[in-house]
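Two proteins were folded this term; both appear here.
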Amino acid sequence: MNFQFAGSASAVRAHEEILGYWRSRRQHGRLPGRGAIDPCDFKRHLPTISLTDVRTNQLDKAREYRLRLAGTGLYSVYGGEITGKRLMDVYAPDAAHYWRTELDKVVESRAPVVGCHSLAWRGSPHLSILWLRLPLAGDGDDVDMILGYDVVVGAASDLGRSGIRAA
């Protein structure tokens, strides 16, 4: 995966850590399943970790994505609890379409996907999410869940804070 981003170096390093962990859980080129992922192995990243169930409607083969788990750090990003909700229940229509397209890429490619998404749909055009989505497959082949990791970027510079606090 080759991605260039002018955001926080610590955000990029955190993504590299999660990606490295995911790669270490693969066995013989097969995708790791949820059972191969131990949250204790990346405790400091848990607040913005998510798990998204991938369900396929057998009649029309359309995929539905439901957030099985969303870390506590995502509550403030979305303005409420998103665990258990579908994309259309969390996002405005344009943003839901964006996420459906990106999650479809993860499922179809069976590979990690990374990107940056503006939070303008939440009324915060000065903020973006640097995101990573990793495929999980209980059988090692067919993606049935997606592990997500998000970092909000842009807040300190756009709010005029230097990161230095007076004593």
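Next, the second protein.
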Amino acid sequence: MDAVEPVVSPRKTKMVLDLAIVYILVAVVGSAAGQLLLKKGMSTMGPLTITADQILGILWRIATNPYVVIGLFIYVCGTVFWLAALSRKDLSFAYPFASLSYIVMIIGGWQLFGERIDIWRIVGSLAIMTGVILIAQSGK
């Protein structure tokens, strides 16, 4: 008896690819949103210097900061989507998409925290976007 190979319709394969990319993008947004909230929370605490006699107090302040708690929660949720994406795509395809969070961070830092964006950050962001577009084309 001949082995029967499953028939995979092109439409179903396309749907899996699209879902993996959706997972990746949700993970990127979750990571970026989480990091922005972490920055907001840590900014409210002022500069920290970690010493042996202050570590427990610092950890308590961090653990009870609502921005930090919510930021960590969102970051973990994004990680769940990242893991789902990794279950569907090669790491060498998925991982470069994570660099999109750099672009979100630059814009978020500028908009939310008044951080300066110079020409080098813009050029770097364009290079990242170009690389992601090239890698996305390899998955088609």
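The chain is about 75% helix and 0% strand. Helices lie at 10-45, 55-63, 66-86, 91-98, 100-113, 119-138. These notes refer to the second protein only.
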